[in-house]
Design brief:
Number of domains: 1
GO molecular function, one term: oxidoreductase activity, acting on a sulfur group of donors, quinone or similar compound as acceptor
Keywords: Metal-binding, Molybdenum, Oxidoreductase, Signal
Order of helices and strands: HHHHEHHEEHEEHEHEHEEEEHEEH
CATH architecture: Alpha-Beta Complex
Oligomer: single chain
Strand content: 15-25%
Largest sheet: 8 strands, mixed
Shape: globular
CATH topology: Sulfite Oxidase, Chain A, domain 2
CATH superfamily: Oxidoreductase, molybdopterin-binding domain
Number of strands: 13
Number of helices: 12
Bound molecules: ligand MTE
Organism: Pseudomonas vancouverensis
Cofactor: Mo-molybdopterin
Distance between the termini: 32 Å
Catalytic activity: L-methionyl-[protein] + a quinone + H2O = L-methionyl-(S)-S-oxide-[protein] + a quinol; L-methionyl-[protein] + a quinone + H2O = L-methionyl-(R)-S-oxide-[protein] + a quinol
């Protein structure tokens, strides 16, 4: 199902796209009409896909992904007046503790992750449980590009163009029972390819677990992403399937998902298990509720440097209040952080 959300956070393409990119995209589209040979472009891309984000390195995505791209609804939702983060920053400043704790570790180490073949288990309180090869799992869904802010609990942020589909579409397929109240997500556990899972010093009791209330998961903003910047997800960003919930701190956006379970009880999530007083189940972006060790009122927008700190005010629900505030009516957000 296609969902077009028209909200104040919507805008026109030039508002979010760096001008040079926007112009080069227009030029490329013009060239396509004039008969540009697709063969001149990276092997996997159509002319239009390649022109969308020209700073992106080429890759070799699986056939199912390429087949789905032409029907993708590009720019289905965007953010206003904020430039897209350069691909290089989005792919080299990461948190993916399975590959190490430094920001550069995921890019350096995630190449060993084997994302093909990949299967996803859907189980728990559903009418249609099953284990699906990723390409079969993806078949029913129309892909959309969603350009969202990503705000990490560590107070840095980016703007990322994701490709994915609403979780509500998945829930419609798998038919949750009346007992299903939460959705629980689990990351791959594979110590052979994930050095963080072999480390004796890891704080995390693997696998990484995240969860949402069912009504949060049904919100049209919540997506499962399979791509970013017009291509498949790089491993360090959570290939081949990750959660994206833009009104919540980044740690909710669990990567490399292998299991999706509908459950009746609130799942125990990874960061909550490590430090419940610092990281809550809700993890809604909230500039008025500080982390015990730092303020959440402001954030560093990447890329930044000592001379260009690029600090900005953090917005309630990361700027998505209009879409999600009603989910929390009557809930004390100070207690339910
Ligand atoms: N998912 C798994 N499996 N392991 C992780 O360590 N880190 C989380 C989240 N998803 C993490 C994860 C955190 S803390 C953040 S901020 C985001 O991924 C970062 O996503 P990015 O690296 O694509 O920016």
């Amino acid at each position: 199902m296609l969902i077009k959300i028209v909200k104040t956070s919507d805008c026109h393409e030039p508002d979010v796209t760096p001008e040079s990119l926007y112009l080069s995209r227009r030029n490329l589209l013009g060239a396509t009409v004039a008969g540009l040979a697709v063969g001149a472009l990276p092997g996997w891309a159509s002319a239009e896909d390649a022109g969308r984000y020209p700073d992106v390195e080429s890759g070799k995505p699986p056939a199912w992904f390429i087949e789905k791209l032409p029907a993708t609804q590009w720019g289905a939702m965007t953010v206003k007046d904020e430039a897209i983060t350069p691909f290089k920053d989005a792919t080299h400043y990461n948190n993916f503790y399975e590959f190490g704790t430094d920001k550069g570790d995921p890019a350096a180490n995630a190449g060993a992750l084997k994302t093909e073949p990949w299967s996803v288990v859907v189980d728990g309180e559903v009418g249609k449980p099953g284990r699906y090869a990723l390409e079969d799992f993806m078949k029913p869904y129309q892909l959309e590009e969603r350009i969202y802010r990503l705000r990490c609990v560590e107070a840095w942020s980016m703007v990322i163009p994701w490709i994915g589909f609403p979780i509500s579409a998945l829930l419609k397929q798998v038919e949750p029972t009346s007992k299903a109240k939460f959705i629980r997500f689990e990351t791959l556990q594979d110590p052979q390819s994930m050095p963080g899972q072999r480390s004796g010093f890891a704080l995390i009791d693997w696998p990484y677990i995240e969860g949402l209330r069912l009504d949060e998961a049904m919100n049209p903003l919540a997506i499962l992403a399979v791509g970013m910047y017009g291509r498949e997800l790089p491993n360090q960003n959570g290939a081949p399937l990750r959660l994206v919930v833009p009104w919540k701190y980044g740690f909710k956006s669990i990567k490399s998902i292998v299991r999706i379970s509908l459950v009746s009880e609130q799942p125990k999530t990874t960061w909550q298990s490590i430090a419940a007083d610092e990281y809550g189940f809700y993890a809604n972006v909230n500039p008025t509720v500080d982390h015990p060790r730092w303020t959440q009122a402001r954030e560093r927008r990447l890329p930044n440097s000592l001379f260009k700190p690029n600090v900005r005010d953090t917005q309630m629900f990361n700027g998505y209040s209009e879409e999600v505030a009603s989910l929390y009516t009557g809930l004390d957000l100070r207690k339910n952080y």
